[in-house]
Amino acid sequence: MSKEIQFVKNDWEKYLSHNKYLVANYTAGWCGPCQAIKPIVDQLYNDPDRKYAKIEFVRVDLDKERELAARYQGANVPELTKLLDQFSELANNDADAKVRQGNGSNEGGADITKSVIYKDISSYIPKGYEILNDYLYSGQFESLNTVPLYKNEELDVKNVFRINEPQPSTVYSDSDSQLLFYIPFTHITKVYSVLLSFKKPESYKHEESMELDEEDLQNETQVPNLLKVWPNHNNIISFDDANDSNAPHIEEITVADQDSETIWYEAKLKFVRFQKVQSLNLFIDGEDQDYHTLLDKVVIIGVNGESKDQGKLE
């Protein structure tokens, strides 16, 4: 899924201060040249070869930001590409320039501390550690037997890893009880723990927008009861391997009775086995193989390290 370029909203100075190499795309609904060049700019920003990965892009509305827009207009594609190539060469030869971590005025992307779940998980983040979800690489992410619970073209399985995603993120296992994720990172990381969020089936209120009907939701769903984790595979493993292999981390998920609707479960990994991690395979299962296993969110805690020069989860 392509990443959308964000519009300036009274934060132009922050964009300038937090992005060493910044391209501003001035646009308006009534401006023919602006609309003509918009898809070209989008293609450049989402170039699969990451040619301009060290350059941030932002859009400026000609009507809402008249002062900024006063000196800039036009739709010269060859000139734009020429200037971008010159800009990219400067950035690539600049030791201080970093691959963009997200579109926005906050350095490194959106402020995770302002996310709706941060207050629930902050106690699970030791001093010196951070949430690694913003460093997941979309291009190679995979999942098996995993379906979004809610019907919406804008929803996908990756939402279960998106910290700041306002839309529903719940997924469920489709044909049996097992879920499998392949999670590549943009950086070499040290992984401390995996947090799983889920609710008891009776806590879900059925809605017409759900893939599961009311009977299935109430009578044929379950919480996770098993987690297996593997580091540094080149791709997603098979379910046969997940069931037969001895994973570096295997943990039975047990949850004491609690009043809160949302349950957060912390799986602390054996840190010595999860250093210099470039990818994870996560296998999640439920107790009854004929039931759907529900999962609301996955958060990975650790230490971010050396960049692998890839893009983040989009």
Describe the protein's architecture and organization.
- 18% of the residues lie in helices and 29% in strands.
- It is an alpha+beta fold.
- The chain folds into 2 domains: 12-92, Glutaredoxin, CATH 3.40.30; 113-307, Jelly Rolls.
- The strands form 3 sheets. Strands 3, 4, 7, 9, 10, 11, 12 and 14 form an 8-stranded antiparallel beta sheet that branches. The chain has a 4-stranded mixed beta sheet with strand order 5-6-13-8. A two-stranded parallel ribbon has the order 1-2.
- β1 (22-27), α2 (32-45) and β2 (56-61) form a beta-alpha-beta unit.
- The chain is globular, with a radius of gyration of 22 Å.
- The model is unreliable at 103-110 (pLDDT under 50).
- This is Thioredoxin-like protein.
- Pfam families: PITH, Thioredoxin.
- InterPro entries: Galactose-bd-like_sf (IPR008979), PITH_dom (IPR010400), PITH_dom_sf (IPR037047), Thioredoxin-like_sf (IPR036249), Thioredoxin_CS (IPR017937), Thioredoxin_domain (IPR013766).
- Residues 121-314 form the PITH domain.
- Residues 1-126 form the Thioredoxin domain.
